[in-house]
């Protein structure tokens, strides 16, 4: 009889396994998941190993449930998150489809109760000994060289279903789908970052309890052969927020004023603000804002409540974090006004309105196509810059080119005073210079060897009137190589299209009129593609251009005004199959003048942030 029981128990263990509940070995294996690449399997095991080493079980008890949301609901099959709540128990992690399902598994002592498995099932990862694995999983780990964090850290992933409707009374198991594993990977990475941030609640007696926490994290998809590109936004909450969050977590109150208007030009009348939802104008001195993030402008509590329910409750915490970077993004050291509420007013305050290259910054000269502003009277650099001698860059090349890292370094190098506003326009050529000499390794190497770098410069507008400012690139290159900048876009006027200008011995510019996807095949292959203030999400024509960039497989760098623009750009790049390889970061040569946008207080700078693909 003993041998018979041993044989039956062995068959049961092979099918259902041991360990916490009924696992880890339940007959499942990631090798059996259709369309799942080995690269993504490696990424999952790597994330599981990192989570194990961080030991979240040391602090988190089974009663500590965490809410998890990965990207938008609409990004998932059936417009619904695969799972929404995580529970950690006995070196295992359960992911539930609802908080009610998680509560049902708690049991009277807060321990996992396998008899209460939800009818809709749960995703489970259990860590255990290698001996507890099925043969197929042991072979998978050995063959693929998967990362294992320790002798008791061999993971198995499965989806478990309730035994209630099953004749033999045992739970049933299946492999997760590819979509569920995508969600699972992002959730693992987020849990690893979040659990150390939980703070002990004050005055709690007996047992650990934590303060409420809501965090939005940017999780990079793995670079292995996964078919995923860019980042995922993961929202983690403690405790979980249910579907009717707005009832228990109502919108924050409206603050009475919008901002302190720091460092703005003095004016009797301030520029009106605008409700972010309905677009109605609101007097600047009475425009209410979200009191939590302080970023979004409303006209009334009704608009705020509606916007909160529709989108803002998801982005409020992220906007709050962005607003906390205000001081960090502010470039100190300049003595001119560094906030622009209205371009004409700012130019008037600086004595620059209607002069030289500054004419392109306001709408007073919009009747002139880009690149065709009337020449400045006299044509000298003093007239072009319209500032006093000594306050614009000298016409003198450097002997050796330098890798510059800040405006302070550049101003000192060129002997410019702190009250010179030329950085506002020079942000364009200096951002390009920074990309080719610092961020892009292949072009940096080429320039150091004295070679010419071909740049495809996409979507030029005001730059077509700022070629005198772009001459500074040639002077900074000194004794190194040179640039051939091909400005390509629909705003290139017919009068310039097809022409080439030698700005100076180190810089020549060719003008190409048309969309990049229509013109690229007829152009020399670029060494780098650059698009400044790109606003990828705002123009549908970018889709075709990004497909060309993907096919070329050459480095491409973009700048944008604000972090929300970059978040949208990452989603668009991901949809095109491009992966961000140079992460979003503050551009050291962003404009020092902050733009005041009508419906938001978020930091907004021309060329504010830079990111890259194919780098």
Describe the 3D structure.
The protein has 615 residues and is α+β, with helices and mostly antiparallel strands. The chain has 3 domains: 14-197 and 211-243, no CATH class; 254-324, no CATH class; 328-613, no CATH class. Helices cover 30% and strands 18% of the residues. It has 17 helices and 22 strands. A hairpin with a 2-residue loop joins β16 (500-504) and β17 (507-513). The model is unreliable at 1-25, 108-112, 243-248 and 258-269 (pLDDT under 50).
Number of helices: 17
Tell me the span between the first and last alpha carbons: 67 Å
The main pleated sheet reads as: 8 strands, antiparallel
Supply Rg: 29 Å
- Number of E strands: 22
Major β-sheet strand ordering: 6-5-4-3-2-1-8-7
Class by helix and strand content? alpha+beta
Number of domains: 3
Question: Kindly state the mean pLDDT as a whole number?
Answer: 85
Contiguous low-pLDDT stretches (5 residues minimum) are 1-25, 108-112, 243-248, 258-269
Helicity, in percent?
25-40%
The shape is globular
Strand composition percent: 15-25%
Question: What are the key terms here?
Answer:
3 domains, 17 helices, alpha+beta, 615 residues, 8-stranded antiparallel β-sheet, 22 strands
Quick structural overview:
The chain is built from 17 helices and 22 strands.
List the helices and strands and how they pair.
Elements lengths: L1 H15 L21 H17 L11 E5 L14 E5 L2 E5 L2 H6 L17 E7 L6 H10 L9 E8 L10 E3 L3 H17 L18 E8 L10 E8 L6 H4 L5 E2 L17 E2 L6 E2 L6 E2 L10 H23 L2 H4 L9 E2 L2 H8 L30 H5 L21 H8 L8 H17 L1 H8 L3 E7 L8 H11 L4 E8 L10 E5 L2 E7 L2 H4 L8 E4 L10 H11 L3 E5 L2 H14 L3 E7 L7 E2 L13 E5 L2
Parallel strand pairs: 13-21, 14-15, 14-18, 15-17, 18-19
Antiparallel strand pairs: 1-2, 1-8, 2-3, 3-4, 4-5, 5-6, 7-8, 9-12, 10-11, 16-17, 19-22, 20-22
Helix pairs in contact: 2-5, 12-13, 12-14
């Amino acid at each position: 009889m003993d041998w018979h029981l041993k044989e039956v128990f062995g068959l049961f263990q092979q099918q259902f396994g041991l360990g916490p509940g009924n696992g880890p070995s339940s007959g499942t294996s990631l090798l059996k998941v259709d369309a799942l690449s080995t690269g993504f399997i490696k990424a999952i095991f790597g994330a599981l190993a990192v989570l194990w080493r961080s030991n979240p079980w040391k602090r988190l008890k089974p009663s500590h449930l965490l809410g998890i949301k990965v990207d938008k609901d609409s990004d998932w099959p059936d417009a619904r998150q695969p799972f929404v709540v995580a529970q950690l128990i006995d070196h295992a992690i359960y992911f539930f489809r609802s908080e009610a399902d998680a509560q049902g598994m708690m049991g009277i002592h807060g321990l996992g109760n396998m008899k209460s498995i939800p009818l809709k099932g749960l995703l489970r990862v259990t860590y255990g000994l290698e001996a507890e694995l099925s043969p197929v999983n042991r072979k998978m780990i050995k063959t693929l060289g998967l990362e294992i964090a320790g002798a008791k850290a061999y993971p198995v992933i499965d989806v478990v279903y309730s035994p209630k409707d099953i004749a033999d009374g045992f739970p049933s198991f299946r492999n997760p789908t590819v979509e569920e594993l995508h969600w699972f990977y992002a959730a693992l990475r987020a849990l690893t970052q979040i659990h150390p941030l939980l703070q002990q609640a004050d005055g709690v007696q007996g047992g650990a309890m934590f303060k409420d926490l809501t965090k939005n994290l940017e999780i990079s998809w793995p670079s292995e052969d996964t078919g995923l590109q860019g980042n995922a936004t993961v929202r983690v909450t403690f405790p979980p927020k249910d579907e009717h969050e707005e009832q228990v977590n109502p919108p924050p109150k409206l603050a009475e004023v919008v901002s302190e208007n720091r460092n703005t030009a003095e004016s009797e009348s301030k520029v009106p603000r605008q409700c972010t939802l309905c677009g109605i104008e609101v007097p600047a001195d009475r425009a209410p804002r979200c009191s939590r993030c302080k970023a979004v402008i409303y006209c009334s509590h009704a608009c705020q409540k509606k916007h909160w329910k529709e989108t803002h409750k998801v982005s409020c915490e992220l906007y709050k974090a962005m607003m906390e970077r205000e001081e960090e993004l502010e470039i100190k050291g300049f003595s001119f006004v560094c906030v622009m509420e209205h371009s004409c007013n700012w130019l008037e305050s600086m004595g620059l309105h209607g002069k030289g290259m500054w004419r392109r910054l306001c709408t007073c000269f919009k009747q002139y196509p880009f690149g065709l502003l009337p020449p400045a009277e006299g044509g000298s650099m003093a007239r072009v810059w319209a500032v006093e001698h000594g306050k614009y860059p000298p016409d003198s090349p450097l002997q050796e080119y330098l890798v510059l890292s800040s405006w302070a370094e550049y101003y000192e190098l060129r002997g410019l005073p702190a009250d010179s506003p030329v950085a506002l326009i020079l942000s364009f050529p200096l951002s390009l210079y920074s990309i080719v000499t610092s961020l892009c390794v292949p072009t940096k190497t080429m320039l150091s060897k004295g070679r010419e770098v071909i740049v495809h410069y996409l979507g030029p507008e005001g730059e077509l009137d700022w070629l005198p400012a772009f001459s500074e690139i040639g002077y900074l290159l000194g004794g190194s190589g040179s640039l051939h900048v091909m400005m390509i876009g629909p705003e290139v006027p017919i009068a310039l299209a097809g022409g080439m200008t030698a700005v100076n011995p180190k810089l020549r510019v060719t003008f190409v009129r048309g969309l990049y996807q229509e013109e690229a095949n007829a152009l020399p292959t670029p060494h780098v593609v650059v698009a400044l203030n790109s606003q990828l999400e705002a123009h549908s024509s970018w889709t075709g251009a990004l497909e060309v960039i993907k096919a070329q497989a050459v480095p491409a760098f973009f700048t944008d005004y604000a972090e929300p623009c970059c978040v949208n750009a990452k989603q668009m790049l991901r949809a095109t199959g491009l992966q961000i390889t140079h992460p979003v970061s503050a551009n050291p040569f962003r404009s020092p003048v902050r733009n005041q946008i009508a419906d938001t207080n978020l930091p907004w700078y021309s060329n504010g942030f830079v990111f890259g693909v194919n780098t």
